[in-house]
């Protein structure tokens, strides 16, 4: 029997064995220093690992390891279910020859990334169920339109007299103040309208 035939028979045999027994999808859950895990009896918390949306599931051990045995040829997804941490989703492709290729999706909509097998599943961040209360900031108050609408007129009322005083001579400024004071007096305005006419009539009568 030639060498090529032996190679073909070996490949067929390996394919049949892998089809019958299936492959093993395994991995380990890890936590970076930025996302420290809670300690449970001196080990890591046990998390549910789901294969292909719930077709099969298992729990991770205290050292974070998990495995699915005798997985047939095909494409599968691997998800880590945790109420506290965010993990990547993995898409696993098992070929007829038993080769395993893995793509990692860190977040929905992010580009896929080819990774090695066994899987190394790292926690990205903690899930935020509540929005942190915003702290008081002076800049936020200054940027508020209502605050600007209130403070700008007050500043202008305080600033305009000082600008006018600096631009005019003292005598001119004093005269302008007197004219403004007279103009603001209602009796002066009435005299301006009627008093001048009355004086003229008196002059005519005297003539």
TrEMBL record:
Signal peptide coordinates: 1-22
Alphabetical keyword list: Membrane, Signal, Transmembrane, Transmembrane helix
Source species, domain of life: Eukaryota
One Gene Ontology term, aspect cellular component: EMC complex
Domain ER membrane protein complex subunit 7 beta-sandwich: 46-148
Major localization listed first in the record, in broad terms: membrane
Family: Belongs to the EMC7 family.
Name assigned to this protein: ER membrane protein complex subunit 7 beta-sandwich domain-containing protein
